[in-house]
Predict the structure.
Amino acid sequence: MNSSSPSSSRCESDRSTDSNSVLRRQFRAPQQDGQLLAVPELSSLSTMVTANRHLWSSEGVSLGGMSLLQFRSLARRELVNVANQIAADWDLPPRSLSNLAGPVIMTGHQPVLTHPGVWVKNIAAAAAAAKLSGTGVNLIVDNDQSHPLELAVPTGSIGHVRMEHVPLDDEQPALPWEERHLHNRAALDRGGETCRELVKPWGWEPLAASYWGTLRETPGFSVVQLLSRARIVQEARWGGSNLEVPISRLSGTDSFGLFTLQLISAASQFHKLYNQAITDYRRENNVTNAGQPVPFLAGERDRYELPFWLWQEGDRQRQPLFVVRSNDVWQLQAADISLGTVPADSAIGVEQLSLLRAALGNWKLRPRALTTTLFARLGLADLFIHGIGGAKYDEMADQLMQEFWGLPAPAFLTLTATLRLPVEVPAISEDDLRALKRQLRDLHFNPGRQLHLPEDHPYWERKAELIAEQQRVSASRGLNRRERRARRPQNRQRYRAFADLAASLAPQVAERERLLRREIERTSSLLAAKQQLLSREVPAVLHPEERLVTLFEEVRRQIG
């Protein structure tokens, strides 16, 4: 690691003593209840932010046709405008900000009902911003594809857990979240009470009981607004206060347009570096799946795919953005559909934004995952807080920032937590199940040992004869294929003799075998229940509020 360029955590090592360096560790999801994983430590926040802010003054680094500092000033002014618009549209308390002079601590996630390990990032962003006299920002990633709107709630008992899927809307085809609207408002409105009743037998009151009050009072049918506003109001009750910015709104800003134009103008170079970053990531992480962590960008001759999505309102399928060089223009394409053109070989500037928007027409242009964090970390954030998954794939963003923009990658924080439902389960493990299965196998093949038969029992005498015969055969080496084939009837006869010997004692161990099988079935059922009940992926709204508050207070305590 270059000591002058802070970067993300990637592999296990000792703490560096350089003030511009950042601890690198292997990412491991925490397993113990209430455990918090932060890489680097939360205590190094100030150092990380100071080092990152120093990077923005790097000479020779330009973005969107202007210096990096100028670009960031424009992007952050627009960020505040979008956040204020969202606050007004969603009936949230306005922050009345005109600029972002202090540090911006940013995180982001899809507008879904997340588990505590994801939600903790929002709490940390707000707390870190407060500590550093800055501003916390949450990116609402509403350009990702939506999934079925439902909650899986564990019901039943410890021995017989089943997952009850509570629908919060009618089934719909996958759409970008920003296009998703409720078909069944009544299903969403009653979802909280349904969850409360299902959880009640376990002995606690879930957050959903109060959380749903905000959902029911929020008008409209926009899934993004409904789910996001309920979360924002809940965070405010806990003392959190972040700016909220949907990617869909951010994509309409001048700064994002200039960022897009820069990638189009250097499509050949960026395309090559992007695919090389994927190749390097797969090699370093032993990834063989062609779609992981992201697929290669397609391209041939003067036609290049860029990491953006395009669609028109009402479309069910997102289209990749292609750009085709033709003389002095770049032709924009949504897959194979030709759109407009933007000039090539000309300086990037705000005067070209109208041409880009005219070329797009009524097509919506949205970033993909890597493009989102590239724009956010370069243009907006002083420190970005990732979860474990985002931190891993952003290793590729680090490489792109270095090789395309010539900028040492700014450090980011990796943060997650584990909080499990407060239910007591038996202290059993997979090792216990394997031990029972070994015992059952031994009972079947070696009943004499399980029955503790005396040494002079005929069972041992016959078994010794069979073992001696088997050893004599095994000692015969160098037989050709014909000789080995001639011995097969004897081998099968000896195998049946072993089986018949064990079967002769089967009636004496039948009851013990029955009890063992029953214990194996019970243990398997308990392990399955334990896996479901103690999964760290259980949505936060199913947890008791007081346990969530305790976890979030621990985050604030560590930040200081």
In short: Residues 215 and 230 are 6 Å apart (CA to CA).
